[in-house]
């Protein structure tokens, strides 16, 4: 991936729209992917409490943004 706006980042962000954390998994960030998936899934499962659902939506949107703006560390 060449950087922000690259095809890989766009694909990762689109994957995150449908499956939270999948974009991070595609980018090789395994622990954040698991954490995001678990947090968003539990938050959406508790939709009837309203606050967890709002919290889950915020985390979901942040995960999409994070995948879209990912820049791998470049060794110099």
Describe the structure.
Keywords: Membrane, Transmembrane, Transmembrane helix. The chain crosses the membrane at residues 6-26, 33-65. Helices cover 67% and strands 0% of the residues. The chain has 76 residues and is mainly α. It has one domain (7-68). The chain is elongated. It starts with 6 loop residues before the first helix and ends in an 8-residue tail after the last helix. The model has no long low-confidence stretch (mean pLDDT 87).
Write the layout of secondary structure elements.
Layout: H1 7-18, H2 22-26, H3 30-45, H4 51-68
Supply the key terms:
76 residues; mainly alpha; single chain
- Helical proportion, percent range: 55-70%
**What's the total helix number?**
4
Structural class: mainly alpha
Mean pLDDT metric = 87
Query: Based on CA inertia axes, which overall geometry fits?
Result: elongated
Measured distance between first and last alpha carbons: 16 Å
Number of domains: 1
- How many whole angstroms does the radius of gyration measure? 13 Å
In terms of quaternary structure, what is this? single chain
State which percent range the strand residues make up: under 5%
Secondary structure tally: strands: 0
Q: Pick out the low-confidence regions.
A: none
Order of helices and strands: HHHH
Biggest sheet record? none
Transmembrane segments: 6-26, 33-65
Keywords: Membrane, Transmembrane, Transmembrane helix
Summarize the structure.
The mean pLDDT is 87.
């Amino acid at each position: 991936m060449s950087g922000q706006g690259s095809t890989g980042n766009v694909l990762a962000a689109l994957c995150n729209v449908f499956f939270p954390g999948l974009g991070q998994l595609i980018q090789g960030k395994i622990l954040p992917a698991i954490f995001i998936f678990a947090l968003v899934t539990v938050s959406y499962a508790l939709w009837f409490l309203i606050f967890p659902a709002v919290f889950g939506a915020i985390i979901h949107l942040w995960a999409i943004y994070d995948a879209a703006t990912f820049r791998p560390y470049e060794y110099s």
